[in-house]
């Protein structure tokens, strides 16, 4: 596929699954030339079709980002037959392959042989330490994790995690890149299991399954807690600001509620294994609300509302 001359640099994306093509349209919105590679050529073709369809749909819906048309943005994308060609002269590499350590390491090791000295190489992993990915690389100081949430076009948060070798300049470049694209990068100071997003998300997931296991509530009612309650606030302010506003500052909040919070934590119990009859029970309750053959419709419903929320938040800034 022919591509227009890029306006701001070349971004290489390795892996053309759902996350890969979703990240591609984030980068094209900023006018970047996007280079795609996948070891499975059919994935590239599927990804290109999905990208073109989404860009056209977003343009029709009035939510296309950037100052280029959908057609112009699509022309910024070029696919490559080899990983070496894909990453050559790239200023930034985003690895989006499946969550398999051996596969990710092999991708980074091959890319490492063909990138420039000042490139930033980022993994989309949700739980593999960048130090593990970078340990055998020549450019280990340029490796980070850049873990987004899906769909990143409408959910802008992306967590940036350094390895023990990462240069400050690599983190600064990645943060600046995503800020200029309209994403919302957060920077971790060091590696921790699950990083930040998954530590918070999985803590909520675990407690939800415990409540269902203990027959405290049905799944349908439980899934109202976020969209009709806590999530209304979280769409605009974080947990710390919520606490801050619910009292006269953090000190006052802790003076009022710290004992209750501590006592409640004592009742959380040990980690829960997500297996067996509990999973069958939750699956059954969820399928009643959303049959498996309606998942794609529901995903579209979700993305439409995330798009509308993103536009509303932009208007309220």
Automatic annotation (TrEMBL):
<dbReference type="InterPro" id="IPR013328">
    <property type="entry name" value="6PGD_dom2"/>
</dbReference>
<dbReference type="InterPro" id="IPR008927">
    <property type="entry name" value="6-PGluconate_DH-like_C_sf"/>
</dbReference>
<dbReference type="InterPro" id="IPR006108">
    <property type="entry name" value="3HC_DH_C"/>
</dbReference>
<feature type="domain" description="3-hydroxyacyl-CoA dehydrogenase NAD binding">
    <location>
        <begin position="10"/>
        <end position="190"/>
    </location>
</feature>
<protein>
    <recommendedName>
        <fullName>L-gulonate 3-dehydrogenase</fullName>
        <ecNumber>1.1.1.45</ecNumber>
    </recommendedName>
</protein>
<keyword id="KW-0560">Oxidoreductase</keyword>
<feature type="domain" description="3-hydroxyacyl-CoA dehydrogenase C-terminal">
    <location>
        <begin position="194"/>
        <end position="243"/>
    </location>
</feature>
<feature type="site" description="Important for catalytic activity">
    <location>
        <position position="147"/>
    </location>
</feature>
<dbReference type="Pfam" id="PF00725">
    <property type="entry name" value="3HCDH"/>
</dbReference>
<dbReference type="InterPro" id="IPR006176">
    <property type="entry name" value="3-OHacyl-CoA_DH_NAD-bd"/>
</dbReference>
<dbReference type="GO" id="GO:0005737">
    <property type="term" value="C:cytoplasm"/>
</dbReference>
<keyword id="KW-0520">NAD</keyword>
<keyword id="KW-0963">Cytoplasm</keyword>
<dbReference type="InterPro" id="IPR036291">
    <property type="entry name" value="NAD(P)-bd_dom_sf"/>
</dbReference>
<dbReference type="InterPro" id="IPR022694">
    <property type="entry name" value="3-OHacyl-CoA_DH"/>
</dbReference>
<comment type="subunit">
    <text>Homodimer.</text>
</comment>
<dbReference type="Pfam" id="PF02737">
    <property type="entry name" value="3HCDH_N"/>
</dbReference>
<keyword id="KW-0597">Phosphoprotein</keyword>
<comment type="similarity">
    <text>Belongs to the 3-hydroxyacyl-CoA dehydrogenase family.</text>
</comment>
<dbReference type="GO" id="GO:0050104">
    <property type="term" value="F:L-gulonate 3-dehydrogenase activity"/>
</dbReference>
């Amino acid at each position: 596929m022919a591509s227009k001359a890029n306006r701001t640099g070349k971004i290489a994306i390795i892996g053309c699954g759902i996350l890969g093509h979703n990240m591609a349209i984030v980068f094209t919105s900023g006018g970047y030339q996007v280079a795609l590679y996948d070891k499975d050529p059919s994935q590239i073709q599927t990804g290109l079709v999905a990208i073109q369809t989404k860009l056209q749909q977003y343009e029709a819906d009035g939510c296309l980002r950037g100052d280029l048309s959908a057609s112009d943005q699509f022309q910024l994308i070029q696919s490559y037959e080899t990983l070496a060609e894909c990453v050559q002269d790239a200023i930034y590499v985003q690895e989006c392959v499946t969550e398999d350590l051996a596969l990710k390491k092999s991708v980074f090791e091959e890319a490492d042989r063909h990138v420039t000295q000042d490139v930033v190489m980022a993994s989309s992993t949700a739980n593999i330490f960048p130090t593990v990915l970078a340990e055998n690389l020549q450019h280990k100081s340029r490796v980070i994790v850049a873990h987004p949430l899906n769909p990143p076009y409408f959910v802008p948060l992306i967590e940036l995690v350094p390895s023990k070798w990462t240069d400050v300049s690599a983190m600064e470049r990645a943060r600046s890149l995503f800020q200029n694209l309209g994403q919302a990068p957060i920077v971790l100071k060091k590696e921790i299991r699950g990083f930040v997003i998954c530590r918070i998300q999985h803590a909520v997931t675990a407690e939800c399954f415990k409540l269902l296991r203990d027959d405290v509530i049905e799944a349908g009612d439980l899934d109202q807690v976020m969209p009709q309650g806590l999530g209304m606030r979280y769409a605009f302010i974080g947990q710390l600001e919520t606490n801050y506003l619910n009292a006269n500052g953090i000190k006052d909040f802790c003076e009022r509620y710290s004992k209750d919070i501590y006592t409640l934590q004592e009742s959380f119990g040990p980690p829960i294994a997500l297996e067996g009859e509990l999973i069958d029970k939750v699956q059954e309750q969820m399928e009643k609300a959303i049959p498996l053959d309606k998942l794609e419709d529901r995903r579209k419903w979700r993305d439409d509302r995330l798009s509308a929320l993103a536009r509303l938040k932009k208007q309220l800034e």
